[in-house]
Amino acid sequence: MTEGALRANESIGRFITLEGIEGSGKSTLVPYIRDFLESAGKTVVITREPGGTSLGEQIRLLLLDPTYGNLTPSAELLLIFAARVEHLEKVIKPALERGSWVVCDRFTDATYVYQGKGRNIPSAQIDVLAEWVQGEVSPDLTLVFDVPASIGLSRVSRRGEKDRFEREEQEFFERLRHAYLMLAAKYPTRCRVIDASAPLEVVRVRVGAILTRLLHDS
User: Fold this and answer.
1) DSSP letter (8 states) at residue 24
2) What's the N-to-C CA distance of the chain in angstroms?
3) For 15-217, CATH number?
4) DSSP state, residue 15
5) What is the pLDDT of residues 151-208, one digit of tens each?
6) What totals of helices (H) and strands (E) does the chain contain, helices first?
7) Burial class (CB within 10 angstroms; exposed 0-12, middle 13-18, buried 19+) of 177
8) Residue 10: what pLDDT?
């Protein structure tokens, strides 16, 4: 991943990604982010990974299904990138070229965290797939919603039946949280860490301030 996509044409839209462990509340903020950007006159496309296309949503069902708890890490990684290439070519790139702002719940950062640090797949292997699949496409802004693993899992437990990832042990999510913070430190221009353990209204205010700066710079 790079610090952000280079854009020769200023009419091209902006690409915002949301990252964080389970229970970080990032998905809860999606409607707020959409409304905030639309109120600023932007056309907004909301999407997610894995998913975003018909094929991607079917792959998502496979990846989250507890039935496939013994899925090999390599198979998991390749399925995610299969969904991603469809997503990029059919949703993300066309939207950006139209001048829309794309807000995506997870992107390649999640792969380096979940499959890299979580499943112990070497970053070099992920690098090859990322370069092949996405080329120069990179988020302009990544919001990293940070929350202690214990709080995130407590929130998850109140949702009902857990998916394949949510069934991992707390230590797994502690490693993921640390990996997200390390990633944010590596890409300080692109990433903004938000304390997601704060009350929702406080989180919204902080997100709004970050988006205001991006709008001003665009």
Assistant:
1) S
2) 21
3) 3.40.50.300
4) E
5) 999 998 888 788 888 888 899 999 999 999 999 999 999 999 999 999 999 999 999 9
6) 9, 5
7) buried
8) 56
